Amino acid sequence: MRIRLRRRRFGQLLIVGTVMTTVGNWMKRSIAQTSSPASPISSSQSNGVNVALSVNGTFHSLTLEPRVTLLDALREHIGLTGSKKGCDHGQCGACTVLMDGRRVLSCLTLLATCEGSDVTTIEGLAQGDDLHPMQAAFIKHDGFQCGYCTPGQICSAIAVLNEAHNGEVSYVTTDVRQEPRSVQLSDDEIRERMSGNICRCGAYPNIVAAIREVHTGEAEAQSWQFAGETETAMFDALEMRTE
């Protein structure tokens, strides 16, 4: 036996079903809102953590949610955007800053652990118009291209020199008992110690040259130069051949 519904009857049943479903969902939401506790007005008022620290020589007192990282505090609450958020997983090194003289990944460092700390970011390295020697070396040797990783690279490079001066060894240090206590940085040492900072543009040879110059204190010739008239003519001739 076939059941036949007229078009009008089918439309009426469809409307009734839709209304009943809508009313049921509304009642569920109303019951859930009534039974759930009211949400806090703000995280800082409900469970904020008070943290006092020095950033580039300036004292800051912040009250923020416990899960806020040092990187987010620097960028979003203190207004220092030089430190970059790259991977946000501690793998690229773009967020590296100095805390109490040691390099840290600010994206993995909770602000709540920084009470009383002295933080230095890329903005705090230069003294007025005088660049930090590492900044000047990076410019001289073209140690950056897009520049996104550069703040972390420079902060990490400064920490590498401090670590070597303190005699801290690395995986490639040949003699961990060597005297004098400070470690002389070979190119392999520099590469190993800077391996946590990724440059997607591939400026690694120039970064090594910049760090080597600051470490030795001996000026090195630039490994690059702007294209002169001869190079420009060669490029123009090459372009004409490919057209």
Sum up the structure in keywords.
243 residues; alpha+beta; Ubiquitin-like (UB roll); DNA polymerase, domain 1; 2 domains; 5 strands
Main pleated sheet? 5 strands, mixed
Low-pLDDT parts are: 36-45
Shape: extended
Radius of gyration: 29 Å
CATH class of the largest domain: Alpha Beta
Under CATH, the homologous superfamily of the largest domain reads Beta-grasp domain
Tell me the total number of β-strands. Answer: 5
Number of helical runs?
8
Strand proportion, as a percent range, falls in 5-15%
Residues in helices, as a percent range: 40-55%
Number of domains: 2
According to CATH, what is the topology of the largest domain? Ubiquitin-like (UB roll)
**What is the ordering of alpha helices and beta strands?**
HHEEHEEEHHHHH
Structural class computed from helices and strand pairing: alpha+beta
Q: Please report the distance between the alpha carbons of the first and last residues.
A: 78 Å
Characterize the quaternary organization of these chains. Answer: single chain
CATH architecture of the largest domain, by name, is: Roll
Query: How are the strands of the largest sheet arranged?
Result: 2-1-5-3-4
